[in-house]
Design a protein that fits this description.
Blueprint lengths: L2 H8 L5 H10 L1 E5 L4 E3 L7 E7 L2 E7 L2 E8 L6 H6 L9 E4 L3 E7 H10 L2 H26 L2 H16 L3 E2 L3 H8 L3 H13 L3 E4 L2 E4 L3
Length: about 210
Amino acid sequence: MDSLDFIKNKFKNFDEDFYREVNGECITTTVEAKQELIKEGQKVTHIPILISGLVKVFTLNDGKELLYYYIEPSESCIMTFSSIFTDKTSRIYACTEEKSEVLLLPVSQFLMWLIKYPQLNQVFFLEYDLRYKTMMDTISQVVFQRLDKRIFEYLGQRIKRSGNPVLKISHKKIAEDLGTAREVVSRILKKFEKEGLITQSSSGIEIINK
């Protein structure tokens, strides 16, 4: 899909002038896996919208990661969007999980488009509502759920997202995303294995359907 087709698919029911302006001002770039797209404190000059791939959005506290959410194709980093109305600096980190293609909208033009095309506000506020719910769910899980349940749900979500029944992931990666220690994750996964909930092999982790 070329950039114009992607823009029309992402922003439905806008007029042709909008599509031409966005296509003329946007930048499309390909980013390899495990590359940093933005970091905390960095000046925000472009709003990213993911065309393909997967991007992790997280924060760091004393060197430990706390996962906020993943950006999937056709989604944007709403925390980057919100920062353009304040100090225009990022409050999060965003890193590609796999090779990704990203559409970048320049902030200077985007602010004018919000005035010229008011319906653009609704597109991003709907996405903001989705991310707000995701983050509230994350907070509830951290506060109220046992870690073993969080890990099991995390595995299920990653498997569903990948479309592959076997998830190739390290215990260290799981620990980083959930803000815990690798040894704790290893112990819980071993318990799951003994209970017949998962299998672990060199190919990865698979949830056993019961």
